[in-house]
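step 3/5: co-fold with adenosine-5'-triphosphate
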Amino acid sequence: MPEVKTAPPHPASLIEIKDVHFAYDERPILRGLSLSVRKGEVLAVMGGSGSGKTTLLGLIGGRILPNRGDILVDGQNVPKLDRSALYALRTRFGMLFQFGALFTDLSVYDNVAFPYREQTNLPESVIRDLVLLKLQAVGLRGAAGLMPSQLSGGMARRVALARAVALDPMLMLYDEPFTGLDPISTGIVARLIRRLNDAFGLTSLVVTHDLDASLKIADRVIVLAEGKVYRDLTPSDVRTTSDAFVRQFADGLPDGPVPFHYPAPPLLDQLLGKAGTASVEGGTP
Amino acid sequence: MSNVIEMIEGLGRTVLNGLARLGLAGRFFLAIMMVIGVPVRRFSLLVRELYFSGVRSLLIIVVSGMFVGMVLAIQGYEVLQRFGSSETLGVLVALSLVRELGPVVTALLFAGRAGSAVTAEIGLMQATDQIAAMDMMAVNPIARIISPRFLASVVSMPLLACLFSTAGVFGAYLVGVKLIGIDDGSFWSQMQAGVDFRLDIINGLIKSLVFGVAVGLIAVFEGYYAPPTAEGVSSATTRTVVTSSLAVLMLDFVLTVWMFRGLNG
Ligand SMILES: Nc1ncnc2c1ncn2[C@@H]1O[C@H](COP(=O)(O)OP(=O)(O)OP(=O)(O)O)[C@@H](O)[C@H]1O
Ligand SMILES: [Mg+2]
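step 4/5: write tokens
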């Protein structure tokens, strides 16, 4: 049992992330990120493309390991857990992937039944009732017999949501739950996220680009940039703040504190061949 | 000069990449073996894959076996009759099939028919986050998705090879006995006397078992590590067929040398 150096987490917080560093190969993505998520809140995580939002969810779920730092979820340090402890913890997570990630070879019903069949010994008759209840909660009981390929994007997202909350998790992780949805579906999914959170006493992390939707449902909004929590605001702050960075986000300006360009050598240097062409041609074999 | 250095560098890189991939495949194989009991205990998982990989390859295997046997009979007869020993056609055909063509051609066909499908399926599951979702639901995807498909390949391959050889012998019988008119009795009795159970049939089965492991591992490995894009999945599918075929032919050589060592010297 490795010695836990960090202080015990604040009793009211479900997730405590402390000074987490993470890099893909040599490229740092997170640089000393610290964050605490309180029990029962809906936290919206915003940030530009590539700012590390999906990476953050992967770290919390233990799918990727940080180079350094602690990620405590309900008092357990995720990167230090062995496989069985990690799996035990994950049974209490629900994760909604960007496009739902439904199992394409299973029907809607079987998708939602999957967690029960894999993780419990409940008889089929009980599973049936539970599945129908979960599908009812997302308004898709009537679609139980369909295959995932027969669903619209919004419906798939809702089925995936029913599957994610099947085992009554303590923590819900949402990766861009609104992308590709029309405004009505966005509203439906957003309200579902809030309602499930409050009805089942969950804690929710919602990674999203959709400022409107997240302002409607979140208790708190954080903005990731430069590998850290750059801003930590309430929804009303976001509407009124004059902070240039948050305004760029809120108003959808192409350039501002968040640069439009991916890091590159100066254009003139590159056109004149001074900077070399390696970054253009990639590694030719 | 710099061209030569570049070439050597390129060669070195290719070799290193290849070795790294081989190492990755080895670790993946161990991970599969750790959970290979799962599809045995949950038999329905295995049955589904046996159906998709094995049963649905039946037709192509039987038809190909028939044709290979018929061709063997024609070619074999043509050579044998020059030496006046056309009644040994049965042995020739049976040995060619059981020792070599059954296991090898079955493995090549299986790689194209079932291996590529497995790679594409797993690659797409990876690309659409289905495997990640399963992992996040605390269900081990290696146990639930990979090991049943691998085991199905190992189990189906010897059975399919037997069928291939049987169909081949039948095809040779049709052409040799019914068409060309070799004596029925000597066709079968020569075959019975000339085929050794341990040396020929067991060795043939061992070969297809090894091919089943190789093709199964390559198919699931390529799918699991396919880049999550359309292009990534399609090139992984191609690689499965190419790599499996090469692996089967090379393993066949190694196994043949090992099995028939000392018989000629
Ligand atoms: N498997 C990987 N290998 C190498 N680099 C990766 C990998 N996955 C992501 N990255 C890089 O890490 C950075 C952060 O990725 P991440 O997916 O966390 O961003 P994100 O904030 O979720 O972006 P988006 O809003 O576009 O989904 C990106 O610049 C991406 O290029
Ligand atoms: Mg993302």
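step 5/5: annotate
The radius of gyration of chain A is 21 Å.
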